[in-house]
C-alpha cells in the first residue's frame, strides 16, 4: 500500500460516522463521512456544508434502492462495485429453467491515459465519447450494414484501476439461453443515474464502462430481447435521465448506439415494436 493510499484510508476511518436512511423501507446505514464526501463536490456539500443534513449527520434517500446504495458504498471504499447475477428466465410452461452461474464482476487492468483523459473531460457536453472512435475514411470503406455495429463496439469508456483489486475476474461472461440479464443491465443504469445526480464522474464512467463491455458480448435474440427493452425503457424515462439543450446524456447515447448496432435483430421483435408504440423520449430519438 502506497503512503498516499494509507493516508487516505486513515483519513476515512477517522472521519465521523454519517447516517444514510435508504429506500422506502428506510434501512439505516452508518458510513464514514469522508468515504462519501470525497466522491464529489455535491456530496461534500451535503455532508460537510451548511445544509441541515450536514448539521445532524443524517440524510434520507428514499428514492434510492438499497442494492444501488450498497454498490455505491463499495465503490466509495474500494474503487469498484460488483455486478449482480442474471436470473433464470421462465419457460413456456411457467417452469423456471436452471439458473446459470452468477455473472462475474470485472476489474480494469490499466490506468487512464492522457489521451483518455480528454474523453473524460468531454462527458456531459455535446461531444459524445464515441464521436472520435471511427474516422470518416474508415467508415466510408465499411459496408453500410456493419457501420453501426462497428461504432458501438469501438466506444471507449476508460475506467480507473480500483484502489483494491478485490474482484479477480476481468471479463464479463456472455449470456446463455436461459439467462435474464435485466437485473444486470438495470443495476449499471441505476448506479449511473445516481452518479449523474451527484456529480460522481469516476463512478459514472465506471458504470458506462461495465455496461458497454456487457452489451458488447451480449447475444440478443427474440427470447431475451425483454432485457434490452427494459434497459431502453429505464434509460429513456425522464424520471431517470433528461435530454436537454446543449447536453447529451451519456447513458442514452450508449444504449441508443447499441440498439442501432442490433437493429437488424431488434426491429422484428414484438416487444420492441410495442415499446415504439408507447412513444416517449426513445421514439423521439429514433425519429
What's a concise summary of this model?
This protein is mainly α.
> What integer is the average pLDDT?
78
Poorly predicted parts: 91-144, 166-170
Strand order of the largest sheet: 2-1-3
Rg, rounded, reads 20 Å
Estimated share of beta-strand residues:
5-15%
Q: What is the number of beta strands?
A: 5
Number of helices: 15
How far apart the termini lie comes to: 52 Å
Largest sheet descriptor: 3 strands, mixed
Question: What is the general shape?
Answer: elongated
Following the backbone from N to C, one meets helices and strands in this order, namely HEEHHHEHEHHHEHHHHHHH
What is the chains' assembly state? single chain
Helix content percent band: 40-55%
Helix-strand category: mainly alpha
Description:
- The chain is mainly α and about 290 residues long.
- Helices cover about 50% and strands about 5% of the residues.
- A hairpin with a 4-residue loop joins strand 1 (about 15-20) and strand 2.
- The termini are far apart.
- Residues about 90-145 and about 165-170 have low confidence and may be disordered.
List keywords for this structure.
mainly alpha; two-stranded antiparallel ribbon; 287 residues; three-stranded mixed β-sheet; 5 strands
How is the topology of this model organized?
Layout: H1 3-13, E1 17-22, E2 27-32, H2 33-37, H3 41-48, H4 52-56, E3 58-61, H5 66-78, E4 87-88, H6 114-121, H7 136-141, H8 144-153, E5 179-180, H9 182-197, H10 201-216, H11 225-235, H12 250-261, H13 263-266, H14 270-277, H15 281-286
Parallel strand pairs: 1-3
Antiparallel strand pairs: 1-2, 4-5
Helix pairs in contact: 5-9, 8-12, 9-10, 9-11, 10-12, 11-12
Amino acid at each position: 500500500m502506497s503512503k498516499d493510499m494509507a493516508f487516505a484510508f486513515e483519513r476515512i476511518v477517522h472521519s465521523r460516522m454519517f447516517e444514510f436512511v435508504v429506500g422506502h423501507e428506510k434501512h439505516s446505514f452508518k458510513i464514514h463521512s469522508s468515504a462519501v464526501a470525497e466522491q464529489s463536490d455535491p456530496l461534500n456539500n451535503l455532508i460537510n456544508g451548511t445544509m441541515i443534513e450536514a448539521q445532524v449527520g443524517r440524510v434520507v434517500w428514499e428514492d434510492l434502492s438499497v442494492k444501488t446504495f450498497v454498490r455505491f458504498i463499495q465503490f466509495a471504499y474500494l474503487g469498484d462495485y460488483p455486478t449482480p447475477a442474471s436470473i433464470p428466465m421462465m419457460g413456456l410452461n411457467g417452469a423456471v429453467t436452471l439458473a446459470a452461474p452468477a455473472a462475474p464482476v470485472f476489474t480494469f487492468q490499466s490506468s487512464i491515459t492522457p489521451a483518455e483523459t480528454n474523453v473524460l473531460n468531454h462527458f456531459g457536453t455535446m461531444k459524445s465519447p464515441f464521436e472520435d472512435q471511427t474516422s470518416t475514411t474508415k467508415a466510408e470503406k465499411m459496408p453500410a450494414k456493419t457501420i453501426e455495429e462497428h461504432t458501438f463496439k469501438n466506444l471507449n469508456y476508460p475506467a480507473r484501476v480500483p484502489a483494491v483489486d478485490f474482484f479477480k475476474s476481468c471479463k464479463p461472461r456472455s449470456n446463455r439461453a436461459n439467462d435474464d440479464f435485466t437485473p444486470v443491465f438495470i443495476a449499471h443504469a441505476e448506479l449511473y443515474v445516481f452518479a449523474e445526480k451527484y456529480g460522481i464522474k469516476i463512478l459514472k464512467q465506471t458504470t458506462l464502462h461495465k455496461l458497454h463491455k456487457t452489451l458488447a458480448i451480449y447475444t440478443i435474440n427474440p427470447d431475451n430481447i425483454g432485457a434490452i427493452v427494459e434497459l431502453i425503457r429505464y434509460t429513456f424515462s425522464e424520471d431517470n435521465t433528461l435530454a436537454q439543450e446543449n447536453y447529451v446524456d451519456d447513458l442514452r447515447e450508449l444504449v441508443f448506439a447499441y440498439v442501432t448496432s442490433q437493429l437488424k435483430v431488434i426491429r422484428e421483435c414484438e416487444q420492441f415494436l410495442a415499446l415504439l408504440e408507447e412513444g416517449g423520449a426513445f421514439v423521439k430519438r429514433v425519429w
